[in-house]
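Section 5.1 Outputs to date
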Amino acid sequence: MLRLPFRRVVATALFAVLFVLPAFAQTDLSQVRAGKYDNGRMWTFDYPPLAEMQEFYGFTPDEAWFTKARLGALRLPNCTASFVSPYGLVMTNHHCGRNSVTQVTREGESLSADGFMAKSLEEERKVDGLYVDQLVAIEDVTDEIYAAVDQAETDAEKASARQQAIQTAQQRILAAAGGTEAGYVVQVISLYSGGRYSAYTFRRFGDLRLVMAPELQLGFFGGDADNFTYPRYALDMTFFRVYQDGKPYEPEHYFRWSADGSREGDPVFVIGNPGSTLRLETVAQLEWRRDVQEKGLLAVLDSRIAALKEVYDMEPEENLLNLIFGLQNSQKLYRGRVKGLNDPVIMTKRADTEAQFVNDLREKYRDQISTDVDVPYLTLVEDLAALQVEKRKFAAEYGAFLQMAGPGALSSATVRRAVIAHGYLKQLAAGGPDAAANLRRSLENAPDQDPRIDERFLAARLNDFVTYFGANDPGVLQALAGRTPADAARAVLQASPLATQAKTRAALEAGTLTMDDPAIALVAPFMDRLQAFQSAFAGLQAQEQELNARHGRARYDIYGTSRPPDATFSLRIADGRVASYDYNGTKAPAYTTFHGLYNSYYSMAARAEGPGEWDLPQRWLNAPPTFDRSTPMNLATTNDIIGGNSGSPLLNKDLEVVGLIFDGNIESLPSAFIFQTESARAVAVDSRGMMEALDEIYDMDRMVLELKAGKLAATEAEADAQMR
């Protein structure tokens, strides 16, 4: 057990008594009630929020408004984007396009540091493999899915029937659309945790070319320190262009650029693809996340990011830096989630929501209850709570094996090979080469990892075993054999052929790989436990999936579409207003300006030695005298967003671009579980700031002309001529 110095223990306890406990005590939890929109305002295009629009903003959009909103928006593989010109110009975030910038960088260039500005159509660079999807049709397939599921009996049969019905619906609708050859893909979207199902038909555009990306220092200004904060000063924007048949694509629907931007209090709308929320989960499910799942993920992120930073400090490398940035984003996210799940006000609101649901359920089925007729949904909350109790029996295994065996950025390549090799050798002995052929191929093709990262991740995994199983666990004692985790990791990588792909293949070819291999011997004491855990936990997850589906159906039966479903990386419209908020004893303004950008530079970077998170590139330090530093740069709004909304356009009532969503503030991080607007804010790049930077700093007259006037110029000279 980690022991803290006595003075630190006393100081920590004193802080809690003086500050933390009184803060909780100021809120009478017996008076806390759920809010009408705790489940959020991420409305689907299946069921657009007409009544809410009229109630809150005094207008009711017509079908043409929603059609334009839907077709102007796009979905990247990991983010949102949108058409912003009649010539296929696509807007998204810098952090959504960061890997694309790296991908198109040529020898001798440093586009991440210097930015990229295509001065002509010819200079726009194709990004191989990148695509965007446009939602062109929606079809309700709920009855089709339920018809198959309701005929099945066991949880496993229901899961199989659901998957088969989904595949059948997808294939039917895709064939009607013309198939993938015609450029379409179909996805069946689960809404209300399975309460409803919609088939979304997307038109896929696969020829995207990079047009403009600012320097990393501007796209991620303030670095991890400023991430999930506000006030903020980031130019988190990137522009691509969709091409078709070698020419710029001309979309029927796109979002025009607002000439005037927005004002505080204005209604604004986010059209995007929020990744996932958990607002329909029961209190017991959230408590599992609080105590085990999110807590465990945060611990893994903390240890692996620390390891990656050690390697980066030895030898800075752009791809590694991008990986660290991405993981730090997740780290801060999960830290905020854990904090939210430990907030008694949030959990009390969630408990009140649950109590209301149970009461509404009993009221709906009151007649059946009084006559002792079986009510299908009555014990859902209790059943889900009982399932969490069963899951908690595997809490140690969950933490110890988290992110261990599968591919990913947080696992050791040698550990992955050792796990596969252990299974391969057992299968080889039991059934011969043919039976073990698939595992052998997996072992041969397992990719390499920087040995410095591999060593640190392997040591971190051993530390996980010690943390969750205990230092005196027989498996831990056998694996470490008296060594520290760091010493054991170093020794394994020096002695095992599983440390590299080439040596692994050579050992397999020579037939010299055995259970005595140091890497296999390291994981062998845990393999039975891992397999038992995976089997048992998969069964519990299957049960939970079915209970969640029934829970979703029950919620939908009671509330219909008056409450939006959880986010599922499907297109949503979220309404809100531009708004300041109280924080740190003062007020966070609705807008920040370029003055704040330079103030951060002079306050932080200019006083530091060496490059830092608040540095500014030379072109920004030598800005022309016509550059207006009072131009709004970022803004805060009450819109309901989550990961996946990055790159979403922020639009006014006329569906004009007034901003570009790129983040939320710290106060918004618990929004995975509950939607609040007291101080939680979405953060966007202001359209006026983007235009000022394009015009004055980057001298991108082609883009200025295209965004302002909807005219396409092949070169900067042609744009200059048209603008005169």
